[in-house]
TrEMBL record:
<feature type="domain" description="HTH luxR-type">
    <location>
        <begin position="48"/>
        <end position="105"/>
    </location>
</feature>
<dbReference type="InterPro" id="IPR016032">
    <property type="entry name" value="Sig_transdc_resp-reg_C-effctor"/>
</dbReference>
<dbReference type="InterPro" id="IPR000792">
    <property type="entry name" value="Tscrpt_reg_LuxR_C"/>
</dbReference>
<protein>
    <submittedName>
        <fullName>Helix-turn-helix transcriptional regulator</fullName>
    </submittedName>
</protein>
<dbReference type="InterPro" id="IPR036388">
    <property type="entry name" value="WH-like_DNA-bd_sf"/>
</dbReference>
<dbReference type="Pfam" id="PF00196">
    <property type="entry name" value="GerE"/>
</dbReference>
<feature type="region of interest" description="Disordered">
    <location>
        <begin position="1"/>
        <end position="29"/>
    </location>
</feature>
């Protein structure tokens, strides 16, 4: 081991003195590794809007009935309140990039999101 620390001889036989290098403190902790986040795989399912339980109730009732008037009577709401709920539901679907401007569009969204089963239609 001491042979490794001895100065190396030069070509003419004399020893060359090499000053020791100062390396500074030696750390036993490895340097930090940068981990780049792996993007989550694109979900095959589109994003769902955050509908309230009452909005879901109004939507499902409207899907099962022929008119908004029937929905209002069934849920003990005014026709204006039913319209307000449906407007908000449409706005929430539009905000997540899934517009549903018609009743058929909302039925399709409810099917896609698992809120209603095709057998219930």
């Amino acid at each position: 081991m001491s042979a490794l620390l001895d100065p190396m001889p030069s070509e003419n036989g004399s020893s060359v003195q090499v000053p020791p290098r100062s390396r500074g403190p030696i750390s036993l902790v490895p340097p930090p590794v940068q981990i780049h986040p792996v993007p989550a795989p694109a979900s095959p399912f589109p994003p769902r809007p955050d509908l309230t339980s009452r909005e879901i109730e109004v939507l499902l009732c409207w899907i099962r009935h022929d008119s908004k008037t029937e929905v209002a009577k069934t849920l003990f709401l005014s026709l204006g309140t039913v319209n307000t709920h449906l407007t908000r539901i449409r706005a929430k679907y539009t905000s997540v990039g899934r517009p549903a401007p018609t009743k058929a569009g909302l039925v399709a969204r409810a099917l896609q999101d698992g809120l209603v089963d095709i057998s219930e239609l």
